[in-house]
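User: Can you write out an input/output pair for a complex, sequences first and structure second?

Assistant: Here is one pair. Inputs:
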Amino acid sequence: MNFEYTEKSLVLQEKLRNFMDREVLPEEKSYEEFTKENLWQVYPKMEALKERARAAGLWNLFLPKNYNEFSPGLTNLEYAPLAEIMGRVLWSSEIFNCSAPDTGNMEVLAKYGSSEQQAAYLHPLLKGEIRSAFLMTEPAVASSDATNVETAIIPDGDHYVINGRKWWSSGVMHPNCKVYILMGKTDVNAARHIQQSMILIPADTPGVKVLRPLEVYGMVDSPHGHAEVLLDNVRVPKENLILGPGRGFEIAQGRLGPGRIHHCMRLIGAAQRALELMCTRVATREAFGRPLKDFSSIRQDIAKSKCEIDQARLLTLAAADKIDRHGIKGAKELISMIKIVCPQMCCNVVDRAIQAHGGLGVSQDTPLAGFWVYGRTVRIADGPDEVHMHQLGRNLVRKMV
Ligand SMILES: Cc1cc2nc3c(=O)[nH]c(=O)nc-3n(C[C@H](O)[C@H](O)[C@H](O)COP(=O)(O)OP(=O)(O)OC[C@H]3O[C@@H](n4cnc5c(N)ncnc54)[C@H](O)[C@@H]3O)c2cc1C
């Protein structure tokens, strides 16, 4: 393992930190107020921020080497610290065209899309002109086991007809969300892992019905949101199928590896900022005749948090390095490990920071409540903790006996 950052990554880290300080942090409060008061509308300065990020060379940083001319060509290890910096302000990734689920969808289209699919959807996504959603989870079945998904993708002449109900479809509420990648079943009689396929559905296709936005602890995450979507006899041309019938699982495996590194590094960025806010707060506030920083329990909370953040960061960088050198398959165990460790670490660290802030910590006046919700939801999304532990435990026993 060699975690020395390359010169290219160090230059971008410096540039990104400056951009965050100069352009993003001053917008933080007004972005949050705007999105609360103007549901499903894009922050008026978002396009200008995107333009400035692109001009500064801070664009599509996530996109791995060699996919096309839009990629700055970073490895996962080079990109990881950049995702950490973006994690300090949860909505900032969009400014750099690095936000989920677009990143995963762009990787899918770059890796597996036909040239027609790439021209229609990948190129506008890479330019930040449109946004997208990924529709896998269904309310009727335990979707942490993706073999359970029931949405039917049935051939009919030159088309596929899609029927089913999805939920937790992040991004669907965004006014620029123009396309969904949907996972469903093309052949329920095939072997368990080749029943599924992925298909592109333009958001305005007749039969697509957005039923409602879902709340996450009372927040709706405007403007992208998380929607429940009914697919009622939705017809799309056969060319919209990605890679071919029965290849959905294979695509899903390829999609989630780097995406988990991105989530974990953003969680580390959120936890790191929470710790910095905590240190500042306890240094300037007094109770019972002493600064809070002098209480032993507070010092312990700070020390524990620093250890946990640095442990999680090293593990995640190890996973990024392993993906770069051995591919997603070779990094499978480390990817499960970071997915188990980082969201819980973020919850623990942010919870301590909230406690040290008192009532302020749970209010809208700090980003802490949002950080905690992010950590808590990533314990479920992209594979709940237990699913990763189940697979990791099983693989380790297999290896050792
Ligand atoms: C904010 C948010 C955003 C999301 N965005 C998207 C999105 O964009 N697209 C999308 O398709 N989905 C998305 N999801 C859905 C998410 O991926 C699913 O919720 C997740 O995969 C779990 O599926 P489920 O909700 O059906 O839970 P279930 O499969 O019903 O599982 C419930 C619980 O059972 C337990 N469990 C499951 N398996 C095991 C096991 N092997 N051992 C022990 N316990 C186990 C776990 O505790 C798990 O949390 C999002 C979810 C959230 C909260």
